[in-house]
Design brief:
about 375 residues; alpha/beta; binds calcium ion
Length: about 375
């Protein structure tokens, strides 16, 4: 990769080369100014970055892989890509989804929308300025190291960064609570991350920290449903599968995917302690370059307003991650909250959007 060419790169002028990859390049012969200067400068471009776990990366195993009766010649058509991406679908995810082609429809179905697409619509200068740095299994102890792989330096365009670690600090496959992150350790690791982001990001950047979700919702919705693995004979419920995975100590989350209500409640209680620590950290910190907001991702709100089967909102195979439909709904809900509940985060609409589209079309696509 050319270190001087990447999305969000601070642009000198892009008279000859598109150094920020947004498809806007060259000089307007009528004004003798570059198009970047004319249509992007001063419009407050803002990149979209997610740092997080498998939910941010959009983990999904095609349910038909589990079901003998649904096997056909297309069932494994996306197999290589899926294995290469470790079952993650960042191109269709809540924060950084960009692929509206439905080209993966054999393996994943549902509406697509994302914060990046909305950010691009708001300002075409943001074209291609997204980074999905979400890693399966990420938690507070690993998130700073994950953030170090961002392609962003101070002086580049500011970014809207979602930090989402919704479960791994209380989840593990072990059947005890000793593997949960201690409150003090969580506070210190998140503090390290925020200081690091303040050093790496340009002034005007925004960090939204989601905290942990309340995973009890998963059991409440799914426990008596039939899991895809048992769909042929209707004989394996999620509750039974959870207990089986716990017995083998290979569950993605012993605490929430558990038929014992006391354990589910204990897991949420500890998650709430970590969330309180994060809130305290945010309210007591001052940063020069970044504004930090406590921004819980509320899957429960999506569930409450969903008029169909709530199971549509959870990944059927793992019974744990938000589904494609939930990702798209969360993108819309998150955007509404940014517009109405957090005034000042979203820059204004770029008045030159139409001129950019007329001159540069789809700006090179993806
Ligand atoms: Ca450019």
């Amino acid at each position: 990769m050319d270190k001087e060419v990447y999305p969000g790169h601070h642009t000198v002028d892009d008279a000859k080369a598109d150094t920020n990859c947004n498809g806007i390049v060259g000089r307007d012969p009528l004004t003798n100014r570059t198009y970047e200067e004319q249509w992007c400068k001063g419009t407050q471009p803002l990149g979209t970055i997610v740092l997080g776990d498998s939910a941010g990366a959009h983990f999904h195993i095609p349910p038909q892989w589990m079901t003998a009766s649904q096997l056909n010649k297309d069932t494994y058509s996306d197999l290589l890509l899926i294995l290469e991406n470790e079952f993650d679908w960042p191109m269709l995810s809540l924060m950084t989804g960009f692929d509206t082609t439905q080209r993966w429809k054999n393996s994943i179905q549902g509406p697509m929308d994302s914060i990046y697409l909305k950010m691009r619509e708001r300002n075409r200068c943001n074209h291609r300025d997204f980074q999905n740095i979400a890693v399966n299994g990420a938690k507070s102890s690993s998130i700073k190291q994950i953030a170090e792989s961002m392609s962003r330096i101070s002086g580049d365009n500011p970014a809207l960064v979602m930090v989402e670690l919704i479960g791994n600090d209380v989840c593990s496959g072990h059947n005890d609570t000793n593997h949960m992150t201690k409150v003090e350790d969580y506070y210190n690791k998140m503090s390290e991350l925020l200081s690091y982001l303040n050093d790496r990001l340009s002034r005007g950047s925004v960090v939204m920290a989601s905290g942990l979700a309340d995973g009890r919702l998963l059991y409440d919705i799914l426990h008596d449903r039939v899991h895809p693995i048992g769909s042929t004979r209707k004989d394996v419920t999620y509750s039974q599968l959870y207990d089986f995975l716990n017995c083998l100590q290979i569950s993605p989350c012993f605490g929430w995917m558990n038929s014992n209500e006391t354990i589910r409640n204990l897991t949420t209680e500890h998650g709430e302690k970590l969330n309180k620590a994060l809130k305290d950290l945010i309210s007591s910190s001052k940063f020069d370059n970044i504004a930090v907001y406590d921004f819980p991702l509320r899957l429960n709100e999506i569930v409450d307003s969903w008029e169909h089967d709530p199971a549509d909102l959870i990944e059927p195979v793992d019974g744990f991650h938000p589904s494609q439909t939930a990702n798209a709904l969360m993108a819309n809900r998150t955007w509404e909250r940014l517009l109405h509940d957090y005034p000042g985060i979203l820059p204004p609409v770029n008045p030159h959007n139409e001129l950019i589209t007329k001159k540069f079309g789809d700006q090179g696509g993806y």
